[in-house]
């Protein structure tokens, strides 16, 4: 479908009477992002423009002159879809569709459309459907005014019944309630999975970041997984978890989450809360940033804002968040060297290229260091009847040396955290007796 992208730039008055943009982002970066969002669902963007709005109109948002100008452009380019990169009220959307004789969707509607196409699991589909229904519920504005009221009651005594729009709203609400119940089951299932993961003490590392920052590419580079990774916005939607081994042999779980975006619709934040809560469970959060994007500072602020909404404030972030400055391979040599040097001198920052692999080894070492905790060195000898513990030891400790003895026992020089040392003592039998399921693991 041939589409036109319109980015309204609203102005706000400062105290000195000067006009200044109400958004912290540059209009050009907003235009590029809106065009990228449209292209992410295979729309043919034939025209894209920035529109200054000094006095937003309640009925149409834009002024009459600009509406007429865009209408002429639509006719010239035979465009039947207009994407307005700004929230539109139901009335504004309806009025603009009448003026332009074209389908109009706002930023929220576009993101919902992308998420609807990307969702591949049952959970993702439920979340998108719920968000879409909540969005659509408020947009049944005069859609059925050509229909008469349905008669209510019985016989000839019944008065006017509900209008078609009221019937549709009731049907939508019934569907929303059903989806919410199904999602409650999803939440319970996720909680069970988390509880099981807690029993197996593998640390969790979560990847977060602005959409198209390269999270999935980095995920594939580290784990060798085949997650879809393309140069497009929201290439992946459903979260993916994989086990991986750190350089010193410790096993961790890496989680790739949905990308964030500025002005993320509240419907989506609410619907995807069960998914985003995976981040809250993480022992370490890797905040992936696209350093080749000139707007990366504003993107970072948006990510941190969403994390704060989830309950990870600035103080918590200092302890749990490691910034990963990605896509340094796209930078010019001078900028590349400056970014790498700045990252090496900044706490909680690692510069990498997920494509070339530059800096990934340093990242893995830093993850290992962050998750190692206080390491304890010890030497143990496992008798023959305890050799079933060997797989657990190789998963949870750093084995510096191993000696297979003539009597079948094994002597190991180990380094492991205090928590895992206590767990080892328990499993060997010097502590509380482990449950049968622990031995089977």
UniProtKB/TrEMBL annotation:
Monomer. Associates with the 50S ribosomal subunit. Residues 1-31 are annotated as: Disordered. Pfam families: GTP-bdg_M, GTP-bdg_N, HflX_C, MMR_HSR1. Residues 15-26 have a biased composition (Polar residues). Belongs to the TRAFAC class OBG-HflX-like GTPase superfamily. HflX GTPase family. It comes from the Bacteria. Residues 162-196 form a coiled coil. Residues 203-375 form the Hflx-type G domain. This is GTPase HflX. CDD domains: HflX. InterPro entries: G_HFLX_dom (IPR030394), GTP-bd (IPR006073), GTP-bd_M (IPR032305), GTPase_HflX (IPR016496), GTPase_HflX_N (IPR025121), GTPase_HflX_N_sf (IPR042108), HflX_C (IPR045498), P-loop_NTPase (IPR027417). It is found in: Cytoplasm. The keyword Mitochondrion does not apply. It comes from Rhizobium mesosinicum. GTPase that associates with the 50S ribosomal subunit and may have a role during protein synthesis or ribosome biogenesis. Keywords: Coiled coil, Cytoplasm, GTP-binding, Magnesium, Metal-binding, Nucleotide-binding.
């Amino acid at each position: 479908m041939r589409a036109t992208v319109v980015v309204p730039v609203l102005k706000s008055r400062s105290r000195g009477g000067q006009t200044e943009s109400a958004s912290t982002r540059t209009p050009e970066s907003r235009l590029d992002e809106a065009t990228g969002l449209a292209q992410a669902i295979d729309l043919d963007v034939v025209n894209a423009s920035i529109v200054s709005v000094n006095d937003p109109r309640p009925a149409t948002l834009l002024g009459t002159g600009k509406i007429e100008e865009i209408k002429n452009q639509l006719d010239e380019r035979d465009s039947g879809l207009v994407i307005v990169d700004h929230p539109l009220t139901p009335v504004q959307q309806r009025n603009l569709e009448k003026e332009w004789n074209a389908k109009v969707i706002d930023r929220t509607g576009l993101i919902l459309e992308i998420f609807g196409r990307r969702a591949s699991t049952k959970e993702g589909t439920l979340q998108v459907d719920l968000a879409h229904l909540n969005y659509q519920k408020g947009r049944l504005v005069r859609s059925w005014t050509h229909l008469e009221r349905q008669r209510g009651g019985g016989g000839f005594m019944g008065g006017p019944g509900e209008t078609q729009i009221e019937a549709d709203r009731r049907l939508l609400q019934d569907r929303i309630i059903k989806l919410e119940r199904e999602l409650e089951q999803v939440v319970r299932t996720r909680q069970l999975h988390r509880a099981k993961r807690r029993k197996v003490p593998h640390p969790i590392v979560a990847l977060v970041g602005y959409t198209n920052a390269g999270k999935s590419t980095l995920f594939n580079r580290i784990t060798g997984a085949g997650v879809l990774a393309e140069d497009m916005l929201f290439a992946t939607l459903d979260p993916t978890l994989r086990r991986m081994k750190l350089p010193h042999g410790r096993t961790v779980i890496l989680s790739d989450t949905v990308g964030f975006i500025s002005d993320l619709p509240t419907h989506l934040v609410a619907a995807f809360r069960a998914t985003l809560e995976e981040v809250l469970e993480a022992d370490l959060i890797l905040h992936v940033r696209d350093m080749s994007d000139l707007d990366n500072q504003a993107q970072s602020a948006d990510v941190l804002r969403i994390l704060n909404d989830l309950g990870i404030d600035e103080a918590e972030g200092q302890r749990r968040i490691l910034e990963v400055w990605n896509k340094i391979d796209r930078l010019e040599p001078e900028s590349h060297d400056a970014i790498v040097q700045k990252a090496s001198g900044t706490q909680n920052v690692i510069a990498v290229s997920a494509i070339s692999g530059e800096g990934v080894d340093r990242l893995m070492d830093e993850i290992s260091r962050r998750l190692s905790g206080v390491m304890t060195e010890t030497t143990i000898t496992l008798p023959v009847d305890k050799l079933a513990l060997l797989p657990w030891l190789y998963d949870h400790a750093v084995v510096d040396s191993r000696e297979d003895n003539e009597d079948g026992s094994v002597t190991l020089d180990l380094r492991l955290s205090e928590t895992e040392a206590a767990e080892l003592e328990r499993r060997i039998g010097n502590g509380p007796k482990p449950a049968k399921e622990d031995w089977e693991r």
